[in-house]
Amino acid sequence: MNRHLPALALLAALVALPLALGNEPYLLNAVITTGIVTIAAMSLNLLLGFTGQLSLGHIAFFGIGAYVSALTSLGFDVELLGGFRVVHEPWPPAIGFGLAVLATGACGYLVGRLSFRVRGAYFVIVTISFAEVVRLVALNWVELTQGPLALTGIPPFSLWLPGLGTTPLRTKLPNYYLVLVVGTLCYALIARLVRSRFGRAMRGLKENESLALSVGINATRTLTLAAVISAAMAGAAGSLYAHYLRIIDPDVFLFSTTVTMVIMVVGGGKGTLLGPVVGGLIFGLLPVALRPVMVPEAQWMVFGLVLIVIQFVMPRGIVPGLARLATLRRTSAPARVPVEVRP
Q1: Residues 291-317, buried b or exposed e (16+ Cβ, 10 A)?
Q2: The pTM is what?
Q3: Which of 249, 252, 287, 301 could disulfide-link 63, Cβ–Cβ 3.0 to 4.6 Å?
Q4: Smallest Cα–Cα separation from 31: which of 170, 138, 175?
Q5: What does the alpha-carbon distance between residue 173 and residue 181 come to, in Å, rounded to a whole number?
Q6: Domain count across the chain
Q7: CATH of the domain at 139
């Protein structure tokens, strides 16, 4: 039970956070967008932290999830090669969310099968190339994606309530709790995975691939499955992003967002469950705190300096560093010697 206390305490704090913010829509909006990117960072941590595979094209899955969910909800009418037209009527956003998860999971399988036969820099190059190809498709397939003009009017998620029917989540507060619920489910799924036999296989490949192969672990299959789950979670985050902002354009594939995810994972502590969550909250909200007092250039300088200081003081990240300090404090505490009282 003790190992779950930090996560439960953080969850309780996040549940009560809107009460602390009060009537501050700007701050609540910042927390919602930070939460969405944090879910994507959690999905990246499944690859980077538990298998040791760095994906610098992870934003591709986020963007694919956003576009698939948006197009499913808006509908489209496009002409494919040979004059064959595809007409799709709008479906509810919940179906778009499910299709986004399935589509990005399939893309993760494709990328994994093609790239996990290589390692290191080759895998990084494959993921970057994949993200750039997807960005160019979104930019140039104007008939489907509207290109730089953006997809607008994306409907929000809806919630069915007994006696009230279907209620669209148009305000920030219900969207905040929707993001919190999805993030909590993703966290629970990752926790279950890494503590299972599959999680032990992932960690084995990260620590010593030759030894893992010698005991019968199928490296390609294990890494591909990790890529599928990671991509599906990133697609879920992209779907939340599209239906919350209700507008998306090819800028959703910006490389800087992938860099932000990597910073969240590394700064918070890769290979830990709470690392990307803590890193996401710090590095997601830090620019918001600096924006009123600094120009953008100075904000990025402070952003980089904070990361350097964290890595210098806590090389493994914030969460492992705090856990190590707590352990040292417990072990260095003087033992209490019982005093015998004689009558």
Answers
A1: eeeeeeeebeeebeebbeebeeebebb
A2: 0.92
A3: 252
A4: 175
A5: 13
A6: 1
A7: 1.10.3470
